User: Which sequence fits this backbone?
């Protein structure tokens, strides 16, 4: 894209001041899943890298609110709620309303940002810009997805990946921490590689042409990886350039937990395996919730300290590639 | 809400540098609709205030791209595309990808902002903050909705309102024009008053409990108006206070074209009828596209001149009320 100048951008003084995660109690093992998709547990583990996934028996807004309540703690109520999830609870109103309802609030501005699996990264940049321009002070960003409900058991490769989960953060202005750089691009030539074709005006639920499979998740993994491999390297280099950093300055990579391979692939871009957060084996691919869940997992295990350069990064349906770097 | 201080906020130097609108050729009159919903043409006109609505025979991204191409004209390609529509084309990827695809672009960042009928207002503030903080320079915002496809002919009151249309604007930094103020609030206690319950994880298309009506638009008009009447007046006062203006300083009110009554109601808040853009009789309620369509209609008819204070305002499913004031 012609717009990238290679120049360092101006950091925005914001910090994730608190955070929370909600993992459903019920766990589905590879053995349990194997009966549903007609593949062995070994095949599932080898191909997807996912050993266990959590399955929610509560609604998406209820799961989202669990994570949000932990993030909010005893602090004041947020002055903005952004839902940054991959799949909506219903078509109208937008899902942020139902998350606010579960939290028991009234009158808080709320809306959704949808950039498929990268919704959290896009929402974080939007929230940072809104805070920097004085529009809001304390923004709650919530990502929650029930990936398991969109599984197509006739497509074992993608059905083996998906799981349920939620994470939330509070973003506020900061004098020390900052968002150093953000980079995001979308290539519609990859739109067909990752889809849920139904649910909107294209293949409406009432449309007799809409098939069972149209309403479920479908992914052409090899096609996604082919595009991502070509585009990912330059994107990451541009992101660290924008931050005025080198790759070796990144203390922790928090990737989208697309699959076992989709996490390990960051070693090919020059990051040591021990600097890459990898929780896919126990969480699966939780769509837009995966990136903040991986971030919260790293925070909970003490892997992030003040002054660290933390890179959130991933690919999403679109095809989009995006990332940002936080100075903690 | 405790956060509003009554203080004037800092303006953001942005302008709508170009714009476009797409109205489908096919028009459905009240007489034609009367056969579908079992009400007379007079009943439709009297109750809804909508004489004609446009019906699209092309897809939502195609209609969106028509408006976007007019807005972009011969200018450079945008460095961000925001889809600010009420209903998605499909669940994944998000709809902005398909609009970019129709425009023939590759590699432009794109995502969706969803705040139901107020998506355009929320997207405009997000885009302004992104521009002000140096993240993007030329943002294309597109709102397109095929409201006619969500009509429930067994609910004549709401089916009489909806129509199809699209509008797009380009937002850029400006030294003269500005976004003076923005105000937006959401009350989940009104969530049930305006709904499309299906299409997401709540009442999934595959769920045997999902009914025909769940996948179509439903509105309890009297309940919406009761909430809006109570909350709207203070919201509008807070918005003009934030801009450091008085209501009499507003040169043009561009309301959501909810219904004939939903447009005329702004006279009750102290605005003269000739300062309120009213295109609902010929366009109907085009969900999130209605506000930018009304704005572009006013621009095309020469009603907006440099230095004018233009207020965009509306209520949306949520229930949300939101508005912003542009110094043109």
Assistant:
């Amino acid at each position: 894209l012609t717009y990238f100048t290679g120049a360092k951008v101006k950091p925005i003084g914001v910090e994730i001041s608190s955070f929370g995660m909600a993992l459903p109690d019920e766990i589905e093992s590879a053995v349990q899943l194997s009966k549903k998709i007609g593949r062995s547990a070994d095949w599932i583990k080898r191909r997807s890298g996912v050993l266990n996934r959590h399955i929610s028996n509560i609604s998406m807004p209820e799961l989202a609110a669990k994570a949000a309540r932990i993030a909010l703690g005893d602090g004041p109520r947020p002055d903005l709620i952004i839902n940054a999830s991959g799949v909506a609870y219903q078509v109208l109103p937008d899902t942020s309303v139902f998350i606010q309802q579960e939290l028991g609030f009234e009158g808080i501005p709320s809306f959704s940002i949808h950039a498929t699996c990268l919704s959290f990264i896009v929402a974080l940049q939007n929230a940072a810009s809104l805070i920097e321009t004085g529009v809001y002070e304390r923004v709650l960003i919530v990502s929650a997805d029930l990936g398991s409900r969109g599984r197509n058991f006739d497509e074992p490769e993608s059905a083996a990946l998906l799981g349920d989960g939620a994470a939330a953060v509070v973003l506020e202005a900061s004098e020390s921490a900052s968002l150093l750089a953000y980079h995001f691009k979308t290539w519609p030539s990859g739109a067909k590689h990752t889809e849920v074709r139904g649910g909107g005006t294209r293949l409406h639920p009432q449309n007799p042409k809409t098939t069972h499979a149209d309403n479920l998740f479908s992914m052409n993994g090899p096609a996604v990886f082919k595009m991502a491999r070509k585009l990912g390297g330059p994107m990451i280099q541009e992101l660290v350039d924008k931050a005025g950093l080198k790759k070796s300055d990144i203390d922790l990579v928090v990737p989208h937990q697309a699959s076992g391979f989709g996490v390990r692939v960051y070693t090919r871009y020059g990051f040591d395996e021990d600097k890459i957060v990898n929780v896919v084996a126990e969480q699966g691919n939780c769509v837009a919730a995966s990136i903040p869940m991986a971030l919260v997992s790293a925070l909970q295990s003490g892997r992030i300290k003040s002054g660290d350069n933390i890179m959130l990064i991933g690919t999403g349906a679109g095809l989009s590639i995006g990332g940002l770097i936080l100075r903690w």
